[in-house]
Each structure stands twice: as C-alpha cells, then as structure tokens.
Amino acid sequence: MPGDWKDLPKDLVARFDALLAPVLQRYPPDRKEAAMLPALRLGQELFGYAGPAVQGLCADRLGTSAARAEEVASFYVMFHTHPNGRHLVEVCTNVSCCLAGADRMFRDLRKRLGLAEGGTTADGRITVREVECLGSCGTAPAVLLDEKEMIERVTPEKLAKIVEGLP
Fold it and tell me: Which CATH entry fits the domain spanning 5-75: 2.20.25, 1.20.120, 2.40.50, 1.10.10?
C-alpha cells in the first residue's frame, strides 16, 4: 500500500520509537492516543513532513486509526502533510494582516514565483503557504520564514527582497 509506514527508513522508525517512548510516559496507558500532537511533530521533524506514512506510524504506535492521525495532521497548520521546499514562507492573512495588505502581498508573491495557489516552486526552493494567524496582530502584516524567523511590518518590497535572497 502506498504511504505505508513500513516503507519508512527503519533507522528513522527506530529513532522515532526511542524518542516517542519518554513522551508516552506522560500519558496513562489507556490514553496514549492523546499523544497525537507530539507524535506527529516528532514524526515531522524526523521524516521531513507528516504525510500519510508518518500519520500511519503515529496511529500504529498510539493504538488508533490512521484516519484519526490524518484528522489531526490536516487540522493544524503546524503540520505539513506534503513535502516543503528548502525554504518555507508563511504569510498571515488573518484580519489584522489583511487590513495591512497581506492578502495582496500573498497574491503578488505567488505570482512572482509562478504559483497558482501557494505551493512549492518548480525547483523545490520555496514553499509559500497562507496561514490563519501568526500572533503578530500589533505588528501586521507578518511572515514566518522557515518556522524560525518572524518578520513583522512586512512591505511588498521587503518580502520580495527576502525571497530573492533565499539560497
């Protein structure tokens, strides 16, 4: 079956199991499915994204269904269910950011990179995603770069310069 967790690299599965074990110690044995968020995050860190195989691995280890893992992974914006480019540019388009022009910047960035609705550039260099809120309403518009660097009070020119400078 495509996306089966048993197709994942065995060394990474073993590492996942070793790292998940102490996490599961914090949960009652009959409630270990409650560890889905940390399990998916761990899987995403090890395998690069929380696709169907990683979701299946998490479900297997937590004693729940793959459908439940998919529900959680697809609900939270912090989980990437598809591979990302080398750089991830997340543009907040919530109310404060939109009022400050983020929706226009998001459209312009997609157009500049040749992306119809966000996604990853053909060369795999940049993934652009629209996100609901980055928690920087007072310094809108905001962009999160590579899940590490918050860029606030972004202008179209500043965003273009940042994206052009990504290796």
Answer: 1.10.10
Superfamily of domain 87-164: Glutaredoxin (3.40.30.10)
Give the strand pairing for 142-145 and 87-92.
antiparallel
Instruction: Find out whether 142 and 92 touch, Cβ atoms under 8 Å.
Output: yes
Residue 1: pLDDT above 70? no
Judging by DSSP bridges, how do beta strands 149-152 and 142-145 pair with one another? antiparallel
Q: What is the pTM of this model?
A: 0.78
Residue with tokens 């691995």: 57
Rounded distance between C-alpha atoms, residue 56 and residue 149, angstroms: 31
pLDDT tens for residues 13-32? Answer: 999 999 999 999 999 999 99
**Res 4 pLDDT > 50:** yes
